[in-house]
Amino acid sequence: MKLHRQLLTAAVAAALFAPAAHAEVAIDVIGGSEITFEGLVQADGNWFDNDLTDLNGGDAGNGKNSEFELRRAELVLKGKGPGNVEWVLGYDAKADKFLDTNLKYKLGGNSNHFLQLGQFKQPNSLEELSSTKNNDFISKAAVTNTYAVARRLGGAWGYGQDNWSVTASAFGRELTRNLAHGSGYGARGTFAPINAGGQVLHFGLSYVDYDADADTLRVRARPNADLATARLVDSGDLKDTDRVSTLGAEAMYITGPFKAQGEYYSSKAKRYDHDNYTSDGYYISGLWNVTGETWGYKGGVPSTGLPDNPGSGMWQLGVRFDHMDLNDGNLANVAGGAPVVDGVLGGKMDIWTVGANWYWRSNVKFALNYVMVDSQKYSSSARGFVNDDPNILEARAQFFW
């Protein structure tokens, strides 16, 4: 850990004292490859107004209703060239894991037509594929964190034009040892019937299918608080799971300084000795750039530009609604005894999040979110469904280059 901190300190110092603080720091041209250095540092604070569950209890708790933590410390080297080759080597010094680490070859020099080998985000989920430093809210939607397949080792092919794209991949484990496992495949297609400056209408479909790690699956979610140690909805261990398949549908509309987007996921676990388990969820969000900026769009994902006025920065206001349903079963009443669970009752959760973001100049962002949770889950001790409705205040300070 000491080495990780020294590496991070040196990297931040290099970025701060570079001749000009842009989105990346140019290093050199070596072997025909233009090498740049990027980084992202995020520090979070969560304040919990608990209801029933202690959201920051357990072994990781600090005895208070608040948590403060360095969330990410990402260091990334990128190269362009020689020729049509691009490469990236990313590492998160906080989580001690590799990020995007891959080679990409642009077929015919076309950035929309490529082959990719290594570790990369799999072709599913609009929110997961969007840049982490420009998340609309501090925590990604609960359904995104639960269902989206993120970085895995594999190979991908992609093709498209300005208003459509198709990507297919085959993948295995995560590059860092002891993290996600399970070989599988995925595909995503997008179509933007409207794609002009500041006006975008986007639709997408995705599908992933993969082996369950050690034939076990557990579907659960935090209440949109990354520092929470407890989950309010939880399927429990589904020990006889063979494969998991998830279908995703997405839509986004940008008009000037307004952006609305939503995603729906339906996931099925194929089991050996039990009925298949199905769960689903969705989110809908809206974001307003108060200072008038709009978004870019490329490769089926939006991009956030710099403030029009760097001195005063770019202000955003947003609201999001999340819904998850991990119930796939029912209660069978037994005369004179406790109800018997037939299937899986993992619970339901609805979450409202309101937030504000401030991007200052080209390297700094501050975010503030307020999260309101309404959850319900079956309790064997209570012999019925129990509500747990906490509220959470979240803050983030971010530096990137």
TrEMBL record:
What keywords were assigned to this record? Answer: Signal
The region annotated as signal peptide is 1-23
User: By its UniProt entry, which Gene3D superfamilies does this protein fall under?
Assistant: Porin
Taxonomic classification: Bacteria, Pseudomonadati, Pseudomonadota, Gammaproteobacteria, Lysobacterales
Q: Which organism is it from?
A: Stenotrophomonas tumulicola
Record keywords: Signal included?
yes
Pfam families xref list: Porin_O_P
Q: Which domain of life is it from?
A: Bacteria
Name it. Answer: OprO/OprP family phosphate-selective porin
